[in-house]
Design a protein that fits this description.
4 strands, about 120 residues, 4 helices, alpha/beta, four-stranded parallel beta sheet
């Protein structure tokens, strides 16, 4: 489980914690760890959902697809249970759910159904 920190900067995470954001969607192990460190240093617990990549092709354009196994966003489906357990052990993290995003400009419902059936 070694994924790059690709989504939010430390400053953005700190701003979200200061604002009392109701849920932060985390895309990788490094992002989860950084968020946990930031929250713990503030004596907070960050309400966190894991962005799971369900390995579902939504049929949208190649450049905006985000739900397939080889797409760069999200936590691989098979790693989700272990990462959720890890999230529960990190002092500054309060796991509150999972999040899925399989792409944009999707004109059919069946890719969404397939993604949520995996969860």
């Amino acid at each position: 489980m070694s994924h790059a920190l690709i989504a939010k900067s430390r400053a953005e995470m700190a701003m979200a914690l200061d604002a009392g954001i109701a849920q932060l969607n985390v895309e990788s192990v490094p992002e989860l760890v950084v968020l946990g460190e930031l929250a713990a240093a503030r004596r907070q617990r960050a309400p966190t959902a894991l962005r799971i990549n369900p390995d579902v092709a939504a049929g949208s354009h190649e450049k905006i697809s985000t739900g397939r196994k080889h797409d760069k966003f999200g936590i691989p489906y098979e790693e989700a249970p272990a990462l959720y357990r890890l999230a529960a052990e990190i002092e500054g993290i309060e796991p509150v759910g999972v999040h899925l995003h399989i792409g944009s400009q999707i004109g059919r419902l069946d890719p969404f159904e397939a993604a949520y059936r995996r969860g």
